[in-house]
Amino acid sequence: MTDRILVLNPRSGDGKRSVRARTIAENRGYDVRESQTKGDTIDIARQAATERPDTIAACGGDGTLNEVIRGVDDAGRLDDVTLGVVPGGTGNDFADNVGIRGVEHAFDVLDEGRERRLDLGSAQWTAEASAAAVERVAPRPFLNSCVCGLTAEASARTSREAKRRLGVVAYVLSTLQRTRTFEGLQLDVRVGPAGEREPAWSGEALMLLVGNGRRFPGEQMRQANMEDGLLNVVVVENRPALDYLRQGAADRLLRRGASHLTRLTAKHLEVDAGTSRQFSLDGELVEGRHLRADARAGAMRFTVGASYEPSPSDPNGAT
């Protein structure tokens, strides 16, 4: 048994960083376990966690990291294993947010970095199993964000080849193309613990953005406070926000102080979308009508780089 395991997805990104990561990991004594098909990363991580290693690191994009966390969580080992990330995907948002600047740097951080207790988002949704039945899905974690609306639905139409070729720009292009047919979504948003939830927003929205590890464009820092036990929530109203995308002014869509934005922080969030909609959990799409999101405070032991900020400025202007 090894004390350090790297769960590697060779299909992430352009594949070159995964090859480099395997070489470095083997040279440093990691047990490298490579996923073979989509979805088996969860099983590999679950099994690895039961072996009680000191460290489990994920090599891939945000989706791969999400699956590794799911596997460790399923094994009930989040409290016992130090987690890490080696950026091998297209966007690598979470790695960037915790101060990881590349493949080699990631291994240096795993060897010498700080361990922090980071929050984890949790989402549970109801899906229509049939015309007469409703199925409640087991909670699933998210590290960066849970997104509903235009961004989530456009990402479903972004091809793997476009993501490889254009990186995160591919999502922007898909979003701009999708605005021609997007009709908005009716949302009812409530915050607070079960039985005490208060109305927070209701109406027609373009997007709902729920962040754990990240903030959203228009805020000075991309990294959210991942140690405050709260989710950052942004509701983007359908008008006039849609006009910014159609006019190619996407950078102004989420500017601070915009009247079409509602920003909230909450430990517990409940969303009713009226009809079944797509939600993106760290880039992985699920579908449901009703969603509950919760912040799991300090759920992960995660190794972070020197540029990670434990207490970044508050998104609403406080420090």
UniProtKB/TrEMBL annotation:
Q: What keywords would UniProt list here?
A: ATP-binding, Kinase, Nucleotide-binding, Transferase
Domain (DAGKc) ranges: 1-126
Can the keyword ATP-binding be found in this entry's annotation? yes
Give the molecular function GO annotations.
ATP binding; kinase activity
Query: What InterPro entries has UniProt attached to this entry?
Result: ATP-NAD_kinase_N, Diacylglycerol/lipid_kinase, Diacylglycerol_kinase_cat_dom, Lipid_Phosphate_FormReg, NAD/diacylglycerol_kinase_sf, YegS/DAGK_C
- What would be one Pfam family of this protein? DAGK_cat
What does the entry give for GO biological process? phospholipid biosynthetic process
Task: Identify this protein by name.
Answer: Lipid kinase, YegS/Rv2252/BmrU family
Q: Which organism is it from?
A: Halogeometricum limi
